[in-house]
Design brief:
single chain; 412 residues; alpha/beta; 6-stranded mixed β-sheet; 5-stranded mixed β-sheet; 7 helices; 17 strands; 26% strand
Length: 412
């Protein structure tokens, strides 16, 4: 079974500047970030759940301005860290090629060309002042040792890197160093930003991947930089299935997924879908909708068609309905159809803020490829219908057009 990652964003250190980091990168903060400053989204509409104080809330009526919004070109610096106890066998360009251009391509396709992630990999190794074994790098990392690692990396890199030029920072460790644990890859959130070169650094991606790395791992971690939640389930004892919430259906659930494109709900939150592409379904009747496959690029000059239908079920809950096909980031999917999932805006990252509804609970699919076969056949096919348990919402798939869109009847 593929190795799993721990939930991102549980360590946040109260630091004020690069100089202050030398002495104050030590405290472990609480699990959830503060709600953060809001940027209004007046066109979100009545089906947009309110953003809550939950860490990485999936609510999208406002944007948390503490995070960069991926609606333009964002520049990312990749800094490659070596250690005195190991001589690198790879060149920085080899590790950069592990992640780019693949990560940029993922976001370009997911955003329908609205966002560009531009990587700026450094060409040389930056040598850390201490051996790799000193930092105790591992999955559940002691906060004081993670603080020491981040402190040393920032202090060393700041001698040659102008952080004011970049929106995102990736620290990439030499994968062959004896103290590097590939399970430790994570985003570090800062309660109070680091100050370097006149720039606030609010979060840093620490990468400890093997060579070659896990597929789509940097897309997953970069999603956290944009305030996206972990969608996998971490068993309390570390054993059992991690992918019971969403299976293969979003990279924030599993970087190994067959259909890793971001949910339409995420694309709405990030600004890649607008109100014209989201159908808000009111209660008390039936309505017909044509849902374009989520991964399909919009026709030139068009809006892209409806990509998401939403039924509001409560103050902080909704049912989302979208079409998934073998196109774009989902080209490797082994099933196609209309996917249904629950959304809860007050649920923390890692606690199941999104859960895919299994419309075929008695069957499984794609045993050789799927991260969680029970959800691999979750979508409804043409001629099938399903009533969401505990709700009055019924979804019927009436037809599929020649272009691949699905005609769906929703009754509430």
């Amino acid at each position: 079974m593929p190795r799993q990652k721990t939930p991102e964003g549980v360590e946040r250190f109260p630091v004020r500047s690069t100089g202050a980091a030398l002495t104050s990168l030590t405290a472990l903060a609480a699990m959830s970030l503060f709600a953060g400053p809001a940027v209004a989204e007046p066109a979100a509409g009545p089906c947009a759940l309110s953003r809550s104080s939950a860490h990485h809330s999936v609510g999208l009526d406002t944007w948390n301005a503490a995070y960069p919004r991926p609606e333009r070109t964002l520049d990312a610096v990749m800094i490659f860290l070596s250690f005195p106890d190991s001589r690198p066998t790879l060149e920085p360009r080899d590790l950069a090629a592990d992640h780019f251009p693949a990560t940029s391509r993922f976001f370009h396709q997911a955003s329908y060309g609205k966002f560009r992630l531009k990587a700026h990999p450094r060409q040389t190794w930056t040598t850390m002042p201490k051996p790799s074994t000193t930092y105790g790098i591992k999955r559940d990392w002691a906060p004081e040792k993670r603080a020491a690692y981040l402190r040393d990396a920032l202090a060393t890199a700041d001698r040659s890197v102008d952080f004011s030029r970049y929106d995102i920072v990736y620290f990439v460790a030499d994968p062959d160093a004896p103290g590097v644990d590939s399970d430790a890859t994570k985003v570090v959130n800062l309660d109070r930003p680091l100050r370097a070169d006149g720039t606030d650094l609010r979060r840093i991606v620490t990468v400890f991947e093997q060579h070659p790395p896990d597929r789509n791992v940097l897309a997953h971690e970069t999603g956290h930089v944009f305030d996206l939640a972990d969608l996998y389930h971490r068993p309390e004892d570390g054993k059992g299935d991690w992918d019971t919430y969403v299976g293969d259906w979003d990279v924030m659930g599993s970087q190994f997924g067959m259909a890793p494109d971001l949910f339409a709900w995420h694309k709405w939150k990030l600004g890649w879908l607008d109100h014209r592409q989201v159908a808000c379904v009111r209660g008390g009747g039936a309505s017909m909708h044509t849902l374009e496959p989520l991964g399909a690029a919009p026709v030139r000059g068009g809006t892209g068609g409806t990509r998401l239908a939403v039924v509001r079920t409560g103050e902080d809950s909704a049912i989302a309905i979208e079409a998934r096909g073998a196109v774009g980031n989902d080209e490797s999917t082994c099933t196609e159809g209309v996917l249904i999932y629950r959304v809860r805006s007050r649920t923390e990252s890692g606690g199941g803020p999104v859960e895919v509804v299994d419309t075929h609970p008695d069957t499984e699919a794609c045993w050789k490829e799927s991260v969680f076969p029970p959800l691999a056949d979750a979508p409804l096919g043409v001629g099938e219908s399903y009533t969401v348990p505990g709700e009055r919402t019924r979804i019927e798939v009436a037809d599929r057009t020649r272009s691949g869109a699905y005609t769906v009847k929703i009754t509430t």
